[in-house]
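Dear colleague,

Following up on yesterday's call, I've attached the two folding results inline so they're easy to grep. Please treat them as preliminary; we haven't cross-checked anything against experimental data yet. The first protein's sequence and structure tokens come first.
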Amino acid sequence: VERYAAERLVSIELILDKQNGLKIPNSAITEKDFFVIPKEYFLQGNDSDKRGLMVVSGDTDTFVTPTIFYETEDSLYIDNESVKADDEIRLPDSIKRYRVGTKTGKLKGVFNVNKGYAIFNRVEVLFQNNDYSVISSGTAYGISLYDHIALDGKDVSENEIIH
């Protein structure tokens, strides 16, 4: 108090609803578009624990294992790395098909640069002000304490090598 006795006005910010998590700058948060695929179209195969899709191409089906970025109760969010818009995927043990790109969604995230190149990771914002956000730590497909992130998400693109 003695330090501020000469000041006429003192700016104080009271945070009444404290949130625990990781503090990151708002400039690091960006949005990315994803394909939303119903969970029922995913299967495990090819001697792997990873979930994949049967992509129909002509008379043959190809098993692909896309990277999953987010999971809801009934669907999974994937990017366009292993499947493209308008590709058809087949329901396992059925003739029912689904066109990729029928449903899309956006996710907020940051670019993780731990490996020397940019990888998108989803974040859940718990609290946000003008300068920074507090995000949930330990989320599935998210970032963790001590991960390195790009401070300006608008200037980075997926898989870009960071110098």
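Below is the second protein, in the same order (sequence, then structure):
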Amino acid sequence: MFDQDLIQKWLDEGTINPAQAEKMRADIEEYKTEHRSKKQIIAFSTIGAILIGIGAILFVASNWEKIGDTVRILLLAGSTLSIHYTGYHLKYENQKYPRLGSALLFLSALFFGASLFLIAQIYNINANNSTLVLIWFFGVFPLIYSYRSTAVAGLCSLLFYLWIYLLYSERNSFSELINIRDLYLISGIALYFTGTLHELSAKAKHAAPIFKFMGLQVVLVALFICTFGSWEPKSKEIISAIYAFLGILFLTVLLSKPLRSKLAGFQTDASMAAISFLMAGITLITTNTQVSEEAYMGFFNLVFLGLLVLLLYAGYSTEDIGIINTAMFWFIPLIIARYFDFFWDLLPRSFFFIIGGLVLLIISIVLERKRRELKAQFAGVGQ
């Protein structure tokens, strides 16, 4: 999108005439208005589809005992298939309501999971079952590529993390091998790398942002928890090897010039590689030597802060406001946590909350002002 200042520059240089400049400005404004309208339609369609789905599921659940088992299964399967076909028809056959069709296709993915758990209940199968979540995951995963659905990509990401949690809870042997935070950190890096691989394919590129976003958020959550210092290292060298392997995978892509040229966020990808190797090192050290909680806490505070700074740099370099928003968001809980750590016992409670509130207000104003400036700059709006 052309910057307003750039249009003015062309006008001053005589590259374009006033009529052309006015037409370009009008086209830009029309594009922005249409883009906002499309976003609203997508949001309303998705929310409406979800509400319909919730209502239908609640209706079936409220009359559950009055319906026979065979009728229940046919009703659930029929509803899922009907919603799916309606969405497919509106998006690909009728083609007049593609956004509503996409919302209904996403709703069918939700219905598939709800039907799966309700049918499991009919046969007295435990609903807190990782296998059911895995079936749901594989059942809707093809929709990401067949219908180019980013919403289903987000759903599959959530199902992936839910499956990990349930599997970890079911298998006691996992807790002896790996800490839950290490498991989520590894899975977050792996999901982010999956998004990086999707960027290399034109047919799968649409799913890359959501996979990278979801992976990055889990990495940040896991690292933030580590900044508190309460961690139980596991005496298994295999965990360090897994971290190193993920780092090597990143380097394989990042050091290949033909592959690297296809990546939209090289700096963020490089930060994930650095995190992988850092975790490989700290895991190996804690496996073989005793590390104090203070040293561990200090190390991860530096790592977390360094990652946020790298994300800010990456977002600014690539003009990605989403990365900048993520980094700015995570600065707030980091500051709050460290403020409580250092000043809770030093200040009277009234001064503690007054000073803390003032600091947070100032920081939030500064961050929001800077975020708006960068968003306007990236959008091509003259300041």
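For the second protein, one point worth flagging: The longest helix spans residues 18-62.

Best wishes,
A.L.
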